[in-house]
Amino acid sequence: QLQLVESGGGLVQPGGSLRLSCAASGFNLDYYVIGWFRKAPGKWREGVSCISSTSYSTKYADSVKGRFTISRDNAKNTAYLLMDSLKFEDTAVYYCAARSRDTYGNNCYGTIDLNDYGYWGQGTQVTVSS
Question: Does the pLDDT of residue 72 top 90, yes or no?
Fold first, then answer.
């Protein structure tokens, strides 16, 4: 059974940091591009970051550029999203997702489109509050 499980969310003060993890089971992440998405109340789900299967290509939404860092450890079948300098507007449920590197290319060019991703985790809540 193919599964992605996020962890690491929680409550943090503005300016704080969190590291989200996305653990895959049932398939080998080596063959997949990973995306992180988030959904805030009243907003559409948006792409936050993307990383190719070998980590050579990454992309960030303008709203998180310079504050978030995406990474992966294929040996652990896990991807990460390090979030620094968190702001109130980063409050959302964060999801990781995977798409085959062979379907849309093993890169993160263009937009981080949720429609390209076929495997999704259940999400983890991140709340930034003082």
Answer: yes
